[in-house]
């Protein structure tokens, strides 16, 4: 009965352990080199535990202490001596390295805006700062800025209202244009003349760059894709060229007036042929 109990306890322990480790991994961003070290340590501990449970399950109170020899040898892992607490020390050494690397990585990070999507890539190293709506200068105004902003869905408290609104530089929404020419099939009713969404993403210990005129990250340099899409810009005013995600996500929960700036796919003349301009946002 005792033997069966130990076998059941061992299997339950070994089943619960991976779930706890996976939960920990989901909360932490652990570099690959340390993930491998933790995995190897986990394998070592599991191997020794199996032998310990088997030894305990086979114990006979009428026999001597030699019954523990197999467990002792398993703990030594082929060495002449097995120091007490060695697994804990190995784990602490790995955790110390991870902590030191994390503290150094906190000193630098990169941010980028993902236009055409309200989400950031599903990676442990990427954090969504806020999702929002694209905005820029009105199409019928000569002044104001040319760049496209990603305003949060819930703006902060505004200051006192100005008395001379007509003399101010206004900010209006940015929406998708008529999209008469498009590089792929889209559901026009869900996108055309609807507001463009965006997401501000934070990346720890990585640099980010937008490559125009290509759909894949460079093969050299260790670049990794964050998202790919096409360049869009305004026809009515001087506007920023932005890399818009191929998802072309839109929102319909705000009213858009006649002053809203609209974006269409940018075109480029390449070898006498007009083409759409692809883009890709990469990190390393």
Summarize the structure.
By secondary structure, the protein is an alpha+beta fold. It has helices at 2-27, 32-57, 69-76, 86-105, 188-191, and strands at residues 109-115, 126-136, 149-152, 172-176, 195-204, 208-212, 224-234, 242-245, 250-251, 261-265, 267-270, 273-276, 278-283. Strands 1, 2, 3, 4, 5, 6, 7, 8, 9, 10 and 13 form an eleven-stranded mixed β-sheet that branches. A two-stranded antiparallel sheet has the order 11-12.
Could you give the topology of this structure?
Layout: H1 2-27, H2 32-57, H3 69-76, H4 86-105, E1 109-115, E2 126-136, E3 149-152, E4 172-176, H5 188-191, E5 195-204, E6 208-212, E7 224-234, E8 242-245, E9 250-251, E10 261-265, E11 267-270, E12 273-276, E13 278-283
Parallel strand pairs: 4-10
Antiparallel strand pairs: 1-5, 2-3, 2-4, 2-5, 5-9, 6-13, 7-8, 7-10, 7-13, 11-12
Helix pairs in contact: 1-2, 2-3, 2-4
Radius of gyration: 29 Å
Low-confidence stretches: none
Strand content: 25-35%
SSE order, as H and E? HHHHEEEEHEEEEEEEEE
Distance between the termini: 56 Å
Helix content: 25-40%
- For the residues shown, what is the average pLDDT? 81
Number of helices: 5
Describe the main β-sheet briefly.
Answer: 11 strands, mixed
Count of individual beta strands: 13
Shape: elongated
- Secondary structural class: alpha+beta
């Amino acid at each position: 009965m005792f033997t069966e109990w130990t076998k059941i306890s061992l299997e339950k322990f070994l089943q619960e352990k991976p779930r706890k480790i996976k939960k920990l991994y989901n909360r932490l961003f652990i570099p690959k080199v340390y993930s491998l070290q933790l995995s190897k340590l986990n394998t070592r501990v599991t191997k020794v535990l199996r032998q310990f449970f088997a030894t305990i399950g086979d114990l006979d109170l009428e026999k001597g202490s030699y019954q523990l020899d197999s467990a002792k040898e398993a703990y030594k892992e082929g060495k002449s001596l097995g120091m007490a607490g060695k697994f804990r020390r190995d784990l602490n050494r790995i955790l110390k390295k991870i902590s030191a690397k994390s503290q150094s990585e906190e000193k630098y990070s990169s941010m980028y805006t993902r236009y055409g999507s309200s989400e950031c890539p599903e990676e442990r190293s990427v954090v969504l700062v806020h999702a929002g709506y694209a905005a820029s200068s009105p199409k019928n105004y000569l002044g104001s800025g040319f760049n496209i902003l990603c305003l949060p869905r819930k703006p902060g408290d505004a200051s006192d209202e100005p008395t001379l609104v007509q003399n101010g530089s206004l900010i209006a929404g940015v929406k998708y244009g008529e999209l008469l020419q498009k590089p792929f099939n889209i559901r026009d009713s869900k996108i055309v003349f609807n507001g463009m969404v965006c997401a501000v993403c934070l990346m720890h210990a990585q640099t980010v760059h937008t490559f125009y005129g290509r759909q894949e990250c460079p093969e050299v340099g260790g670049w990794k894709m964050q998202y790919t899409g096409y360049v869009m810009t305004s026809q009515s005013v001087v506007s920023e060229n932005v890399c818009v995600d191929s998802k072309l996500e839109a929102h319909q929960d705000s009213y858009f007036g006649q002053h809203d700036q609209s974006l269409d796919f940018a075109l480029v003349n390449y070898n006498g042929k007009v083409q759409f301009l692809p883009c890709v946002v990469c990190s390393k």
